[in-house]
């Protein structure tokens, strides 16, 4: 694997917090420049006015994950064509917090915002997994009673394993400690009485995020005159 491939592998871990999709899949990475142990990552967003706090989260995560490569000593992150490019680029390069760069625009140094979007992503990933389990023949009662270990041991298809792993990633991000596999984001257990309504609510969250991702791809393609990406399959069942 080349050094550039290693960098892109780490960039696959950087997600747009609002859309819960990797920047690499969204085509937000403009280019990567490598000079010995120094890496310069240039990224772009769909509009000039995309939220600075979302952009800052992405820039921080780019620096964080690329810095984990053992041969990398310095990471420079540059956001192109944005109303706050200068502030974001200088702030992330100097390892400043969002509050230090944009005083008064955020409380909690973006951690509250990160948690808000972690919860939305949790609903979306959970809905996909639960629907997959229902489609393979599991009952609501069986799903509600699943333990984490039983879920990990289920013989799933490649798609099912991917859905399971992505869901468990988000449980870890929310610091869940319950032995139950299927809970609310606050780790409350589900009951059969609320299961269908809960799943419908999670579906609405998931579809909203998928629509927004589809819309952002279109804006980015128009802004930078990029070839159209493959049509996103917005599941409607």
UniProtKB/TrEMBL annotation:
Gene3D superfamilies: Fe-S cluster assembly (FSCA)
Source species: Siminovitchia thermophila
Highest taxon in the source lineage: Bacteria
Pfam families on file: FeS_assembly_P
Span of domain MIP18 family-like: 4-77
SUPFAM superfamilies the UniProt entry points to: Fe-S cluster assembly (FSCA) domain-like
Classification via InterPro entries: FSCA_dom_sf, MIP18-like
Name of the featured protein: Metal-sulfur cluster biosynthetic enzyme
């Amino acid at each position: 694997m080349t050094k550039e491939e290693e960098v892109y592998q780490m960039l696959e871990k950087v997600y747009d917090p609002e859309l819960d999709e990797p920047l690499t899949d969204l085509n937000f990475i403009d280019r990567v420049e490598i000079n010995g142990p120094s890496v310069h990552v240039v990224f772009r967003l769909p509009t000039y006015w995309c939220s600075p706090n979302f952009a800052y989260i992405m820039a921080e995560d780019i620096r964080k994950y690329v810095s984990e490569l053992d041969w990398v000593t310095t990471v420079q992150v540059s956001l192109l064509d944005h109303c706050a490019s200068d502030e974001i680029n200088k702030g992330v390069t100097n390892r400043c917090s969002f509050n230090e760069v944009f005083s008064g625009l955020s409380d909690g140094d973006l951690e509250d915002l990160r948690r808000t979007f972690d919860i939305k992503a949790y609903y979306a990933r959970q809905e996909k997994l639960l629907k997959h389990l229902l489609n393979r023949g599991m009952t609501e009662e069986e799903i509600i009673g699943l333990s984490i270990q039983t879920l990990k041991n289920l013989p799933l298809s490649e798609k099912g394993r991917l859905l399971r792993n992505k869901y468990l990633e988000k449980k870890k991000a929310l610091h869940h400690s319950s032995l139950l596999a299927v809970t609310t984001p606050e780790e409350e257990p589900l009951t059969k009485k609320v299961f269908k309504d809960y799943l419908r609510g999670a579906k609405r969250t998931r579809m909203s995020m998928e629509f927004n991702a589809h819309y952002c791809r279109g804006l980015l393609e128009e802004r930078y005159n990029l070839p159209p990406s493959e049509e996103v399959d917005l599941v409607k069942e």
